[in-house]
Amino acid sequence: MGPKPGPGIPEKIAGLNADKDCGTGLLENHLEVNDFLKIQRAFEILRLWDIHHQLSIQRIACSFPRSQDFTCLFHFDETHGQLFIAFNNQLALLAMKSETSKRVKSHAKPVTCVLYNSLLKQIISSDMGSTVSFWMIDTGQKIKQFTGCHGNAEISTMALDANETRLLTGSTDGTVKIWDFNGYCHHTLNVGQDGAVDISQILILKKTILVTGWDRAITVFRPQKFNQFFIQSEEWKGGIQHYDDILCVAFLPPQTLATGSYDGEIILWHNSTENAHHVLHPCYQRLLKRKSDMEPQKLYSAEQRGSTYPVADQAPLAARTSETDTEGNNAVVRLCFLEARKNIAATGGANLVSCGGSGYVRFWNTLKKQLLAEFLAHSGVGSITMSIDKLNRYLTTGDLDGCLKIWNIEEYCFESNKKKITQTPTLIRSFQPHEDQITSLEMCERDAHLLIISASTDCSICVTGIHGAPVWILGQAKHWHLENCFSVLERDVNLIESESPEESMKVNALYSKEESCLESTEHSLLNTQEKDDSTNIFRPSEDINLGIKYKERNIHKKKARKLYYDEIIQKTASTFRSLSIRALTELPEVNKPAFLLDPEKYFKKEPEEHLRIPELPLLSETLKAVFHEKNLFPKEILDQKRKPKQLCQETTCEVKIKRSKKQL
């Protein structure tokens, strides 16, 4: 059985429509990637349909010859936007081209992963074109780039070792390569056993390297046995425990390992023994304790999921049978342990966060095996991804539309509750830095400032802060300086905090007036985007090009703002955070200086005197001597010059005398 399409696949299908009465064939979005549709009748026109709106998006004329006896096969690779058409012995390929955009691009191909190297203070990014780039986080300048790391295969994920001196890249060619930062590959891990696989995550531990993404089993490598260039995987002692592909993995010291799968199950393992002991799911939880639990693949087939589960009671079994996830609505795409919450699980608080299908974020207690809270972070956008800072104060989530949200989870789910919490944590910021799906998120700290790095399939990488910082794009023409930017923000925050209570009351009263006139306009714009109401204090830099929807919303805000005299206006999204506009106070009378009272005295013009230019004497009167070389050169030089002439003259005379004597 082929791999399943990921959650949040666009609702588009490819179909055929004949100019004669030949019916219509559809390639529906619920078909698996390896499934084929066989059509036995002649078609000449290909149409692309939107199922949701039941509209034909595009009409393509096919160039196949007419024939009465033929067979057509269609295969739509939605990941790469390619449609393969086989007509008898002919094969055609239709490829979707990305729309041209003026947006700044960080990579030539869609970006798949971003990391932050705190040792070198650099951002590391990869793309579908097998390129790895390195950027200075302080300025956004690209310093180096590795191309063709896995040939032409896509780099799907990356990881850094504990010392941050080695980079691991996982590719769809079925290999994981270990690099130094000079571009030298030290080892190649054969993950897919010489086959193409979809690697979603690499986790580096002290004694093992775990790779997941395409199989129900964990693929493990043991670095102490890296004695050659090509390394083969070893057996995971815990065997296969998942009933679907493992998409993510997380580790909590000293020995807790968690893996999340496509069907929504989270399995807890003991890292040293590599044995599983519990299964968590939004609808149930079960204990793994018998030997038969170690080999679930022998208990039931894929078509009979949930029928022979070895569980302690039948209630969880019935729940799983009725809640079998076939569309990835509960798929666990990312897992994060809250390591900064020391011993919080023992007191009943949450120590594990998961996200994925349908836009939900869930908080778990792995010690009590309990789901404490779940909330809808992004509605109507399918699967999401996330990242959490090291101090576990902030959670960032990104969706398929390029929208990013920042949540304050510092005091969220600290205690155990009888009922599951569905209330969302405090939303700090919501904005759309990208035009397409956010594929990777990373949070890092630089000079005591928390930064968010986001990568997208729109080929861009954005860097921003938690509270109202600008959004920078790696690759933009103008480099930034983090220290200068954050010093301006801190000065603005200090100015707001220093306001008196009376001024703050005026600000609140005035802002309510502004919000009332903006309510109808903003509400309609938010409805068109199908986004939740949230605080938006996004201030873009001058060098980026945002989406049209955000620009339209910002224009409406500017038109609706009014200036009120004798009151203070606070603009959280502008350069001037606090602006006071009131009538000017009268200045005291100033004594005029003396030069203004009596200008004639200081600026009176004196009568000009005509200057007479004396006549120059004649040249004959001033010439002392006639020009001669005797006046210019010393006597010795003139004598040296004169002697050769005299000698020549004397010699000439003697010759003449001799000639005259001979003639006589």
TrEMBL record:
This is WD repeat-containing protein 49. Keywords: Repeat, WD repeat. It comes from the Eukaryota. InterPro entries: WD-EF-hand_domain, WD40/YVTN_repeat-like_dom_sf, WD40_PAC1, WD40_repeat_CS, WD40_repeat_dom_sf, WD40_rpt. WD repeats lie at residues 104-145, 155-182, 239-279. It comes from Heterocephalus glaber. Coiled coil: none annotated. Signal peptide: none annotated. It holds the Pfam family WD40.
